[in-house]
Amino acid sequence: MEIYVVALSQHRGVKEVTEWMSKTSGQILAQVKQVVKVGQGVVGFGRNISGLFKHAITVGKRVRTETNIAAGAVSVSSAAVELALMKLPESSHGSARMLVIGAGKMGKLVIKHLVAKGCTKMVVVNRTEDRVAAIREELKDVEIIHKPFSDMLTCAAEADVVFTSTSSETPLLLRDNVNDLPPVGSEVGGSRLFVDISVPRNVGSCVSDLENVRVYNVDDLKEVVAANKEDRLRKAMEAQAIINEESKQFEAWRDSLETVPTIKKLRAYAERIRVAELEKCLSKMGDDISKKTRRAVDDLSRGIVNKLLHGPMQHLRCDGSDSRTLSETLENMHALNRMFSLETEVAVLEQKIRAKQNQKIQ
């Protein structure tokens, strides 16, 4: 993230940030939103940087909503979970009994993807409990039951879906092992699913010949991943068009901030005139006027100034809400500076303030 902040400070990186945000996961979007929230009021996290990340978050949400770019698994582990759920009746997604054999890197990813899909309970077979305990600690509110490898067949008998991801050089589940397992219920389709993402395979090749058993391996999953990657590339092209459009809007907003000092000067100039004329008016009215009358005259003067400033202020803003270009806005800024001698007014005001401060010191 620091790279993008530096890029912005050098008037670059707007497009890069929006592209980065649009392609990240929902989890990272949430993390960046938290960064923006914490960064408010912190020195260095000014209007430009805050505006950049808020706009990038908006663009990320828009891309994910309009293109659905996050849909479709593009890794073997996520494809394994996606494929298993596709083969199960939708009504059984919350009740299907899940077994994960192996808690290494791939097994952990399978567990995470299962949790992301709403699974709240599963059995994990692993040689030691340490890895399972670490995963359990990371994934709160999920029931993860550890079983040793000696209980693997017993666990498989009680599972509707079995994911395998171990480094075993020989198959763990053979035809005879699986043939002896009790059948699964019709509520999960009547077939036990084996999703083998191990290389070499953990499920014997002859297991797929058994009735009421369906086996999917890495080769099947690679086809799913490849198809999803192609689809995501097409969606990325759609996302690029959105990013280009939103980047131009952000750049226009950022460049329009150049008019902010003029807006402040014009308001200060008008306010000085208002206060001076108000004091003259009140002095002529005498000391016996009521607070209600003073307030009414003050409100009247404010209302007049605000209405007179409304038009000029509108022409000093370039936020994409109208057809005005940035160059037109900047021309309006220079014109107002000349017409009201705002640069001179500020210099004179600063001299007066310094003079008063010097008098107080003396």
UniProtKB/TrEMBL annotation:
The keyword NADP applies. Pfam families: GlutR_dimer (PF00745), GlutR_N (PF05201), Shikimate_DH (PF01488). Residues 238-342 form the Tetrapyrrole biosynthesis glutamyl-tRNA reductase dimerisation domain. Residues 26-67 form the Glutamyl-tRNA reductase N-terminal domain. Pathway: Porphyrin-containing compound metabolism; protoporphyrin-IX biosynthesis; 5-aminolevulinate from L-glutamyl-tRNA(Glu): step 1/2. The keyword Oxidoreductase applies. It comes from the Eukaryota. InterPro entries: 4pyrrol_synth_GluRdtase, 4pyrrol_synth_GluRdtase_dimer, 4pyrrol_synth_GluRdtase_N, GluRdtase_dimer_dom_sf, GluRdtase_N_sf, NAD(P)-bd_dom_sf, Shikm_DH/Glu-tRNA_Rdtase. Its EC number is 1.2.1.70. Keywords: NADP, Oxidoreductase, Porphyrin biosynthesis. It catalyses: (S)-4-amino-5-oxopentanoate + tRNA(Glu) + NADP(+) = L-glutamyl-tRNA(Glu) + NADPH + H(+). Residues 83-224 form the Quinate/shikimate 5-dehydrogenase/glutamyl-tRNA reductase domain. Belongs to the glutamyl-tRNA reductase family. PANTHER family: GLUTAMYL-TRNA REDUCTASE 1, CHLOROPLASTIC. This is Glutamyl-tRNA reductase. It comes from Salix suchowensis. The lineage of its organism: Eukaryota, Viridiplantae, Streptophyta, Embryophyta, Tracheophyta.
